[in-house]
Design a protein that fits this description.
Elements (H helix, E strand, L loop, with lengths): L7 H22 L1 H8 L6 H9 L1 H29 L5 H20 L1 H4 L5 H25 L1
Helix pairs in contact: 1-4, 1-7, 4-5, 4-7, 5-7
């Protein structure tokens, strides 16, 4: 069995990009909307302080999750590129999009269907994952 050629630096960069994107997406870009949709805009200062206690752990786990996602996407990109007649950033965008459509979109819908979350919140969160996977795809395709 032959090992799949991966650029681990590109995977690491994807993890860093994920944290930066999340900080922007859930901060200045959509932060107020996200907090409102989560119901966090109604928290008192003590509740907000309690919620912030686990942020370092949450960021660390999100970073690890992003590394896993980038690692798996890098594998998918290698396999997809060998069967598609496309390469470079187009291969990255295409692979990122199809992974989002086939895996992220259906799985995250359970937040609405069973978790009583709104479609607006779902759209905001799934949009983040779409942008994340597209960015990962481009990084991995061009640098992988």
């Amino acid at each position: 069995m032959q090992a799949v050629p991966l650029n681990y630096w590109a995977v690491l960069v994807c993890g860093v990009v994920s944290i930066a994107l999340g900080s922007l997406w859930y901060g200045p870009v959509f932060g107020k909307m996200w907090m409102r949709l989560m119901g966090w805009d109604k928290m008192n200062p003590e509740q907000m302080a309690e919620a912030k206690k686990g942020m370092i752990k949450s960021y660390a786990l999100s970073f690890v999750g992003a590394l896993v996602m980038a690692y798996v996407l890098a594998h998918a990109l290698v396999f997809a590129s060998s069967y598609m007649n496309v390469e470079g950033y187009a291969a990255g965008l295409s692979t990122g999009f199809w992974m989002w459509l086939g895996f992220v979109l259906p799985v995250t819908m359970s937040d609405v269907l069973w978790g009583q979350k709104s479609w607006k919140l779902w759209s905001l969160n799934s949009g983040y994952y779409l942008v994340q996977l597209l960015m990962f795809g481009v990084i991995l395709a061009l640098w992988g």
